[in-house]
Amino acid sequence: MTVIAHFIDDSWKLQSRLLRFIYVSCPHTAEKLTNVLMDTLLDWNIDRKLSTLTIDNCLTNNCMIDLMVDKLPFDSLILGRSLFHMRCVAHILNLIVRSGLDVFGHGIEKVRNSCSFWTATPKRLDTFQKNAKFENVSCENNLVVDCKTRWNSTYLMLSMALKYKKVFYRLHQREPQYKSEPDEKEWALIALKKWDTSSFTEISKMSENIITKFDEYWKESHGVLAMATILDPRFKMKVLEYLFPIIYGVDNAKDEIQKKGCVIDGDDLHSDEDDEGIEGGYSNVNEELKEINEY
After folding, report:
1. CA–CA separation, 211 and 102 (whole Å)
2. Per-residue model confidence as pLDDT tens digits over 112-125
């Protein structure tokens, strides 16, 4: 188990520190993981300074969160513990994309088998490169086989395979052992750029699934992001009141802010100078964001 702490120092700089790297013997039950994590927090005397806990999305970790909440002081957690459990965005993003790619998983599996077949031996790879020359396709970039649990590697595999589409077709005609070439519809699905406006029913359905899963994650995480923005003296309510109408629409923006407990008392959150900026619509918010990013 690896425990990493992220915090803001006195200069408003984000800091990260590795607190513990420890072997946890099997079975990795929720109780055992909870005990190891609590020991770490107590050793560093930060059990009352913990705002959120970010972990992968799995049943054991969900059970661990329940046990952790019972062990931590109630008054030390923000918003009644509602923001304590933060799911790892990288893991969630991978799950979202994987669920979307399942819609045309058969075509992806064909590409994966094709790449595996032609990179299995030096002789096959040489044959592939020779046929690429016949098709006037550059072989500067080699075929890659993805890791099924990493969506970005699948993207790299597909984008590379698309460059060799004509080569796969030529080899399918000449190599009887090669039987994994995607058909035209599967290539068309893989090559699409704008999924949400696609005329393919499969792609439209996939886009809807992705958006639904993303919204499910976003509704749990955007509260803590909003709170962090409010506590940033450079912005306070500016970013929320600028972005939330764009994300949720003008009619729902105020309700979304209040729903997450981000607005306790408007007078407490921004000064008179801020009110003037709010009334003006924050026409300069993009410039301010750009300055912060450059800083």
Report:
1. 15
2. 999 999 999 999 99
